[in-house]
Amino acid sequence: MSAAPPSLDFPRSYNAAHDLLTRQIDAGRGDVIACVDDHGAHTYTTLLARANQVGNLLRQRGVMIEQRVLLLLHDTADFIACFLGAMQIGAVPVPVNTLLTSADYHHILHDSRARLLFVSDALLARIEPALAFIADPPPLVVVRSPLGGDAGPHPRLDELLADLSSRLVPAATTPDDVAFWLYSSGSTGAPKAAVHLHAHLARTAVLYAQNVLGLHAGDTVYSAARLFFAYGLGNALTFPLYLGARTILRAERPTPALVLATLREHAVTVFSGVPTLFASLLAAPELDPSGLALRIANSAGEALPRHLGEQWRARLGSDILDGIGSTELLHIFLSNAPGDLRYGSSGRPVPGYELRLLDDDGAPVADGDEGSLWVRGPTAAVAYFNQRARSLATFHGEWTRTGDRYVREADGRYVYAGRADDMLKVGGIWVSPFEVESALAAHDAVLEAAVVGHADDDQLIKPRAYIVLKDPAAAGEALAHELKQFVKAALAPYKYPRWIDFVVELPKTATGKIQRFRLRA
Fold first, then answer.
1. DSSP state, residue 285
2. 3 state SS for 48-76
């Protein structure tokens, strides 16, 4: 990896959205295509105009500096316009997962105190039940999605922007002003908001995208990870806008067929995915490396198994840079790099970040020993909003406790060793075992349930449930299928247990706590 400064200097008056929107225009590239979505191509100039109109709309609606604006949107150019338009006026955009339940959205609406909502028409039915239980719901603006949908009684963004100016004077924010929130699930499953600053976006673009990925203005980027994730936000918004690359946005779920068609149609050179998707792509009969322009891929969300990286290199002739990041650190801080890659490891610290491994007493561990991973770097969230205890457990001065366990080898590479808690990462998304257990326990046939992570054939972690039934005679494949569907109906679908084992009893401590380590073994 090339050397990088530990931090970036900013002028005292700095607005990250204005920087991202005008950087390429100021370089004389305003008419270059910045983004291609399912509606068409958008230049840097048209993106700036759209974001300015959104900012003017928010001001017209009375949204003020530091107030939150919730985004429940598919990946389109309007996501970029709404996200950056809010930041331009000093408001705080809060993009949220499009796969959550009504209860999750209800919690987020209360927690964020959002003053206005931007919602894709195809996603309106997901959030309306949550709004129905709020006494004074915030106004909602419907954004056109390629997947289609009815706006109902709500105004459409296109209509509201028609007569608004495309010129806007950005708010005089500072690098240390709050810029946006990103929600991350915790051990209880309740989403919590990581608070990020205006300085953080540009720092990730320089420290990781420029200095590790080598992203440049000639690249075309496609991220299967969506914009509402910290990982996808960097890959598909921050990095290409800051460095002048073209970003490809697709609203549909990234199936192997869609991903491969996108890579080929748009001559994608940099692809961002998660290990589960790489495994699906390698198994897809449509995978044909001929005609692809791919020079590099990156992976995060969960550790990439060695065999997937090696198979990808053998099949496609290019590498996957596996790394680890987090919502709290905004993007990848530990990564493999071109010319310095070893599959089966997460690589070395991204220059600008410092890592340490500590034992349970807080003492450093020796190379070769497993420890809890802590990171210090210039993109750490300042806190979880309105979550004092959780903030104190994660953020310790300049250091952030990741909750991951690692082994540092003698050559400085880090090898993933699991989670310090019982949380699971499924397809790059955190899943709380407690939440899945609670959903299972709500079924009339279930007496007790315990959920742990289990590796599938590709060594990727998925939920596995051990269940004690009220009537043991009811055990069987029919009930197992019914329970999986029951969880899918109660929670976001990716959280359902892939395997169900019926057991007579669960292993417990003397005080009645379930011993999940025995189930994992």
1. T
2. HHHHHHHHHHHHHCCCCCCCEEEEECCCC
pLDDT, tens digit, 9 for 90 and up, residues 355-394? 999 998 999 999 999 899 999 999 999 999 999 999 999 9
DSSP H/E element including 313:
helix 306-316
DSSP of 64-121, one letter per residue? -TT-EEEEE--SSHHHHHHHHHHHHTT-EEEE--TT--HHHHHHHHHHHT-SEEEEEG
Rounded Cα gap, residues 161 and 77, in angstroms: 15
SS3 288: coil
Return all residues near 80 (Cβ < 8 A) that are at least 6 apart: 35, 47, 51, 227, 237, 241
DSSP run (H or E) holding 17: helix 16-26
pTM of this prediction exceeds 0.85: yes
pLDDT tens readout for residues 449-499: 999 999 998 888 899 999 999 899 999 999 999 999 999 999 988 999 999
Question: Do strands 370-376 and 354-358 pair parallel, antiparallel, or not at all (unpaired)?
Answer: antiparallel
Decide: helix, strand or coil at residue 449: strand
The amino acid that residue 88 corresponds to is Q
Tokens of 108: 């987020």
Q: What is the pLDDT of residue 3?
A: 36
For residue 424, give the nearest of 190, 254, 185, 233 by alpha carbon. 185
Alpha helices in 189-295 (DSSP H): 198-204, 230-233, 239-243, 256-265, 275-283
Specify whether the CB–CB gap between 181 and 194 falls below 8 A: yes
Identify whether the C-beta of residue 291 lies closer than 8 Å to the C-beta of residue 268: no
CB burial of 192-225 (b: ≥16 within 10 Å; e: otherwise) equals bbbbbbbbbbbbbbbbbbbbbbbbeeebbbbbbb
| Tokens read off for 329 | 């650190």
CA distances for 498 relative to 50, 305, 431, angstroms: 43, 19, 13
Per-residue tokens: 70: 């919730």
Q: Mean pLDDT in each 10-residue stretch from start to end of the chain (521 residues)?
A: 53 96 98 98 98 98 98 98 98 95 92 97 95 92 94 95 97 97 71 96 97 97 96 98 98 94 97 91 89 95 88 95 96 98 97 95 94 96 96 96 93 89 80 84 89 90 93 95 95 93 84 75 78
Residues 409 and 403 sit within 8 Å (Cβ to Cβ): no
- The DSSP secondary structure of 145-213, one letter per residue, reads -TT----TTSPBHHHHHTTS-S--PPP---TTSEEEEEEEE-TTS-EEEEEEEHHHHHHHIIIIIIIII
